[in-house]
Amino acid sequence: MDDDRRTRFEAVYQQTYEHILGYAMRRCDSPEDAADVVAETFAIAWRRMDALPPGGASRLWLYGVARNVLANHRRGQARHRNHSMELDADLADLYAHSPETSVELGAIARAFEQLSEEDRELISLVAWEGLDRAQIATVLGCSRNAVRIRLHRARKRFSRALAAAGVTVNYLIMESA
């Protein structure tokens, strides 16, 4: 029994580790914080192996666990965190290829930071994780219809924030998923 549990855990770990690490890296301030989130996520998965769904659903379940771990991590680190829009703009500028691109990336970063945490999470699950509505519903523990409505509203708010920042919106990207 213990060998079966270990074998299953190792298989799930190998299949999902990069996805969960990417999820955490895109949401944490440092690689160390991301490593902590990933470690805690898989520790919970080990403790709750009986709740871990089979097959591809395990990745979505782990996204949900990682999301909760990250929320707990953020609450614990809230007094130490000082997110500033200037830092986000500087990071965006660092990876820009031209002066025009850096200004636009900075404006996009500022517009994204103006969104609520819930809106940022929904848009990130689509843009960064590549999840569709059904998968997002599984991660968030809500219906596909709720995801559709929330995502539509989040995209509209992001589109308005981008327009206010003078950024041209590519609707093909905004309407995917």
What's the short story on this structure?
The protein is mostly helical and 177 residues long. The protein has helices at 2-25, 31-47, 57-77, 85-94, 99-114, 117-127, 133-140, 144-164, 171-174.
CATH architecture of the largest domain: Orthogonal Bundle
Level of helix content?
A: over 70%
Using the alpha-carbon principal axes, give the shape.
Answer: elongated
Largest sheet: none
N-to-C order of helices and strands: HHHHHHHHH
List keywords for this structure.
177 residues, mainly alpha, Rna Polymerase Sigma Factor, Chain: A, Arc Repressor Mutant, subunit A, 9 helices, 0% strand
Care to describe what's here?
With 177 residues, the protein is mostly helical. The protein is 75% helix and 0% strand. The protein has helices at residues 2-25, 31-47, 57-77, 85-94, 99-114, 117-127, 133-140, 144-164, 171-174. Helix 1 (2-25) runs antiparallel to helix 2 (31-47). It is elongated and about 60 Å long. The protein starts with a helix and ends with a helix. Residues 79-87 have low confidence and may be disordered.
Please write out the topology.
Layout: H1 2-25, H2 31-47, H3 57-77, H4 85-94, H5 99-114, H6 117-127, H7 133-140, H8 144-164, H9 171-174
Helix pairs in contact: 1-2, 1-3, 2-3, 3-7, 4-5, 5-8, 6-8, 7-8
